[in-house]
Design goal:
The chain is an alpha/beta fold. The chain is 28% helix and 26% strand.
Amino acid sequence: MKTMALRAPGGLDRIVIEDRPDPGQPGPGEIRVALHGASLNYHDLAVATGQMKTADGRVLLADGAGIVESVGEGVGEFAPGDMVVSCFFPDWQDGLPTKGDFSRTPGDGIDGFACETAILPATAFTRAPRGYDAVEAAAITTAGLTAWRALVGDGRLKAGDTVLLLGTGGVSIWALQIARMVGARVAITSSSDEKLERARALGAEFTLNYRAEPEWGRRVRDWTGGEGVDHVVEVGGPGTLAQSIEAVRIGGHIALIGVLTGFSGEVPTGAFMSKQARLQGLIVGSRRQQQDFVRALEANAVRPVIDRRFPLEDLSDAFRHEQGASHFGKIGIEW
């Protein structure tokens, strides 16, 4: 089968097409999936560029979706012909997180889904939302589930809440769609007025260009009448956290899910303490949370925003498109 593998020490010019043996038939508890779609995430880019080290020859991509071809003994949840989508943490079925690394994450600690066929335990997949194609389904695995857990799982989002989103990448646009699905009001930032216009079309109520308004935290708080937002989906990290703390209400919730501005930095502890807010770090979610997310998407007829689709053999070009930061929503890989 065709695979897209990363050769050490990493880099987009080190992504190679390789023919590898067909994995055969599934064993007990396993399913064989003909993969047809994937999507890109910041984590995938960090692995591909060598920023996050992985084994030589690693098959890339954490998100994958396709059609079940056969099932092993004891599998009752899936049948041939079912559309399924992968789990970011294939061993985290339910409950509180117990792992804080990527040693079992596809495309990093284990081989990922940039290939034609995968055989894994049935518990490493969930059913895909009805009516989704493979790229749309793959878009839920990392970015979608992260936004769902941040707002619904950890944040207990409810109708009428106010939410601040940073940027218009995959997680933020998913969070916008989830927030509007629940009936929350949304503020969103970007450096692109064109992207802000598109966010308004998706239901964002307050938009702000952070380059034109570097003190955007106060502006967002003013939008709420001075109280501050109930939730912040914080994808920037140390370079944006101070403004997010400025924007959040007393007793509010900041979901820290991204490190786009770096892995460490100063925290305005005095301001944060006075806000008495909750800063919750998180990495994606459990299989049970993904199943809950799928049901919510089906019940509300929500579909992901796919920026552009690339063929599998053009994976390096897809990553370059991601690096350019011109995308709005998810970048898909389709074959």
